[in-house]
Amino acid sequence: MDPTQTPGSDHLKISVAAPPLWTYIAGDTIIGSVNGCSHIGASDAMVSLALVGQAKTLIEREGCNVTNKYYGVWELFEFAPQILHRGPIHIPEANSSEKINIPFSINIPETASLSAFRDHGQAESFIPLHAGFIAQHPLPGTFSSEWSGAKLCIDYHLRAQLQYKRHGSWQVQRATAPITLGHPTVDPSTICFALQRRSIACRVRGHDLRPSMQSEKLSLTQKAQRMFRSSRTLGLSFAVDMLMPLHIQLDNPAPIPLILRVVPQQNGSSGVIKDAVQPVKINWMRLSILSQVEIVCKPEGSGCCKIAKDENVFTQPLGLKRVFSERKEPIVTVSGPRDQQINIGSILHLVLSHDGLRSGDERLSRSVSIQPSFVTFNIRLSHKLIWEMSLDIAGETRTLSAEAGVIIHNSATRL
Fold it and tell me: Is the C or the N end of the chain the one with fewer CB within 10 Å?
């Protein structure tokens, strides 16, 4: 289940006219040449070239004295190979100044061929298997991953073939060249950057909640009353609302919206402080990206009646917490009738890139690699945004956490 790695033979190689590690996108044109590398002379020969795209998955499960294997191989394209040459051919000796270079130009389609699901059933696919959907669904980018008992890859490559007659029989030489395809670039104007809310109910007790007491030191009796949750201490109920994006675009310079509201609740709050403004300090905040890779296959040599699925979940911390320890001024909001909100993402100018989270020009995380969300026939990559926060209100500390699904879009520009 590994990407194709056959560079060529002594007779045939593919040269792609692109810088090293170049990333194509759907709709691009690949140009280059197929090169003869060793001496061949034949009266009848054919050189052909094809673009191949495959989504491949493998699951291995240990049974009783046997390893059960499940495969998923989807051929994304079905095109007749381009015939680059047909007729006599003469490839000079390797030390000759005369070379054979046959140029080519081949377009990368923007969607998979409708033939991709010909030999597959709906149970094997994460996306609907009907022509109208496939014709609009974008190609996934190059991708690979593996974990215990599972491998997968989305692989694109060029495949060249030289056929020629020698001593009355056909000889065949082949060569391949890997192509890196990026995930679709996305115009920010086409993305609806909607917000989703996560709300957590909280309650604190203390004499500090009375506005006149917030700057006073508590007596020993008052501290004991608060410690033992005495009915004589004031109580405040409030909800911590975090508004988070449903969509994030990599490398978008607009800060990620992380909007915090501390909303007082009438029920459960002491009457004398229901309308009082309470300062709330944010001690720190953590942010992580949870990635979930899912695959689907069918058993080796069987029909579609038995389908195997597997998944791998991993979390990448984004390093946000240290920004709070390095700030000279704390981030403070209030809980009160004004229902004030603050945008932490805007205050810290948080931007998500392929290599992690940035606060302004500072990269916060190391060894982080963020891939855009995508789904194709047998592979799906989805994400969640996980946050954890410590707040101080009325002399008490509360630590809260929540998560929400997020769709991560590719950058608007090519990398």
Answer: C
pLDDT at 1: 56
| Token pair listed for 84 | 């680059």
Residue 401, token pair as written in the block: 């956490």
**What is the residue whose two structure tokens read 């560079």?**
7
**How far apart are alpha carbons 316 and 290 in whole angstroms?**
6
Supply 47's token pair.
Answer: 């050189």
Q: Token digits for 354?
A: 């392929």
pLDDT of 254 strictly over 70: yes
Given a cut of 70, is residue 96 above it in pLDDT? no
The token pair at 109 is 């389609």
Query: For the structural domain made of 12-181, what CATH number should be given?
Result: 2.60.40.640
Q: How far is CA 240 from CA 95, 220, 261, in A?
A: 76, 30, 6
Helix (H) or strand (E) holding 124: none
pLDDT value at residue 64: 74
CB neighbour list of residue 250: distance below 8 Å, 6 or more residues apart = 352, 353, 354, 370, 372, 408, 409, 410, 411
Burial of residue 175 (number of CB atoms within 10 Å: 0-12, 13-18, 19+): buried
Place 91 in a pLDDT band, splitting at 50, 70 and 90.
confident
Report which of 389, 274, 415 is spatially closest to residue 321, judged by C-alpha positions: 389
Report which of 82, 87, 79 is spatially closest to residue 105, judged by C-alpha positions. 82
Whether the CB-CB separation of 359 and 285 falls below 8 Å is answered with: no
Transcribe 6-23 into DSSP letters.
--B-SSEEEEE-S-TT-E
Torsion region of 322: left, alpha or beta (phi above 0 gives left; psi -120 to 50 gives alpha): alpha
Domain definitions of the chain by residue range? 12-181, 188-409
pLDDT band at 228 (very low <50, low <70, confident <90, very high): very low
- The pTM assigned to this predicted structure is 0.85
For 304, phi then psi, to 5°, come to: -95, 10
